Amino acid sequence: MARLIKIFVFTLISFLLISCSSSDKNTLKVGTISGPETQLMEVAKKVAKDKYGLDVKIIEFTDYIEPNSALNDGSIDANMFQHQPFLDQQIKDRHYKLITVGKTFVYPMGIYSQKIKDLQKIPMNAIVAIPNDPSNEGRALLLLQKAGLIRISESAGLYATPANIIENQKRLNFKELDAAQLARSLPDVDIALINTNYAMSSGLSPKKDAIFREGSDSPYANIIVVRENEVNDPRIQMLVKSIQSPEVMEEAKKIFKEEAIAAWQSN
87 and 48 in contact (C-beta within 8 Å)? Predict the structure, then answer.
């Protein structure tokens, strides 16, 4: 009897392993941060199932560290929550073997003003409010450079500070503030550089109110990330196509009121 029980248990385990293995070939676990991007992934999940027969299981996280850790150790197969500069820093600090396989959306930083409508008419010695955290400060200065107002030393990379400015013909004066305070600073400065989330929460529209903003070529586009050794997995390609689909585009328009820019499309 004991021998028959052992044979039954062994057979059952083997069957379950085979079933799981077979199922896993059609399944991907994708990490997201709870919130709007999880809503987008819910739409991509439906697209993946309907168009490619791919089952996407969404794993929600509440912080920005765990999704890359979980991807690196194999707990999930892909994640969608970060931009390239953040991933690069994570790889540098933690030696992850992760790689980008596609872009999603840019939530653009914009230049706003209550005093001018044309950056070409910005006065000499204008006061410019920028975020005071390293990542967003560099992002703001790169946007000012793209707008033609300053020039930054190439060696500064994505983490430039005012000290890295090598050309400032308008002699702009920089006021470094917490990112959440920038919209409130508009009455007291000539221009302010504000992230989409803080702009929208203050009643500003990047599309309508910004006098200059990032485009689809921004290095701060959110990305789809996988392990390096799985970059050619056909399931990953299906996932990317599902995320970069018209259905997800439509959902992004609803959630972000057309303020999100599809980074995989040209300007």
Answer: no
